[in-house]
């Protein structure tokens, strides 16, 4: 019983530490952060469900922050060795390397994805999962990001993006691209929706 209590006690501060780290980074650079707090568990699990854990190739996560979505991907069955975590914040990179020692952590700008991944990717990605604040960026920046993501992805593999906005972060009418969306996740604060884009 004391062991269980100590395990429980050690887990609570970790979550609080993550929220403090996130809030501090958001206050320093609000437009670089997708949210004020890490993604909720239900949102993270919803994003992970669009990734096939048995597919070949790496799974690229953009803007993993403290690893909320990363955890959900691993719980979903994605081998940690397949994860390529692209994070801009050097403090979060250090944290991710500590938490996910088998993943490849790349410190770089996800909005310059081709430059960031050019010497990292040996095979096409089986998924790109993004926690980036797309709606804070101009539409041309968003379109460049998804174009670069599709260049890194295997045909038909998903680009998974969440947003707090009611409108999709990238237009649904892109030529040759299929789009689907999850139900609105009301249990997340703020409520969110997951959008999935695939190019044939």
Automatic annotation (TrEMBL):
Example GO BP: methylation
Coiled coil: none
Keyword RNA-binding: yes
Name under which the protein is recorded: Methyltransferase
Keywords of this entry: Methyltransferase, RNA-binding, S-adenosyl-L-methionine, Transferase
Organism: Bradyrhizobium uaiense
GO MF terms, alphabetically ordered: methyltransferase activity; RNA binding
Organism domain of life: Bacteria
Signal peptide: none
